[in-house]
Amino acid sequence: MSSTSVRTVLVTGGAGYIGSHTVLELLKAGDNVVVIDNFDNSSPKALEVVHDLAGRECVLVEGDLGDADTVEAIFAEHDIDSVIHFAGLKAVGESVEVPMKYYRTNIGSTMTLLEAMDRHEVRRLVFSSSCTVYGDPETIPINEDTPLQASSPYGRTKLFIEEMLRDVADSNPEWRFSLLRYFNPVGAHESGRLGEDPTGIPNNLMPFIMQVAVGQRAKLSVFGNDYPTRDGTNIRDYIHVVDLAEGHLKALDELETGTGCRAFNLGTGTGSTVLEVVAAAGEAVGKPIPHEIVGRRAGDVIAIWADPEKATRELGWKSTRDLNDMCRDHWRWQEQNPAGFG
Ligand code: UD1
Question: Is 132's C-beta closer than 6 angstroms to any atom of ligand 1?
């Protein structure tokens, strides 16, 4: 199939933060999209906004990817060409408390999906992996050959799924997998209408900062300033969610010729400290972000950023949005939607 023909892409978890931005890019590119989502940690309103922004709609199946009958029905009813697989649980702390829930949901549903794909001879999949599969790396920046080692049940589900996909690819050369290892996704669609809507108290830095900025929380706790980095705070590679979404389309295009199971880092290649993010967010918001230094958070890696060269070389993808763009767009979303999708 050439990249100019219309594809039908199944997007699992398509109402989530990265999923919804990716569905929007697919619809804009002219692809047909079928979404399966159980709205466990997402809102149907995200897809309503996507439809509005794209001027066309995807097919929505509300259901659980772990349910074999639901998944079978999707492949029976729709002529799916390829799959982008986002669906899964992603809270690191929760995964430590209830590991079996994470193994059942993330690994079990991926198996259900692969079995249905195999039955229907759909053998191209882009997988939502994470830089968490590198654990606490010895050398930075990180390329895809860095040894893998996850340090939480959540991280291990990503790692085990990667291993599973490698085995499946080895079993039949028709399978083609792209494992996209995201660094730290932040930002929002530039319209300010689509963005991240975490439930409860955000674990992640940018949503927390923005809830402080909008007045929902008094101040940010910065977890440690005694790390061996330029200002003592952790370094991460923050990447704009729209750059990430575009990476999925590039990976899907590339699977038309690329074979086997290959991993790609999706990051900017630039690391920012927590205090640099706080400063950039303050600029975007137009007032300083109240914050205080507290103790280290257990399990945080000191510093990590991507070597994204392989994705540029093999997928033709490169991030184009910098930290100021990420803060500006995330703030626009938060300011216009203080209660998220409500
Ligand atoms: C975490 C997960 C990672 C997951 C990612 C996105 C771990 C070890 N990794 O990454 O697997 O893919 O979220 O969901 O949990 N920070 C503060 N104050 C806060 C929140 C964060 O100082 O209130 C700091 C953290 O210490 C860290 C940085 O901000 O240095 C980024 O934290 P966060 O956004 O949670 O992402 P990661 O921990 O990098």
Answer: yes
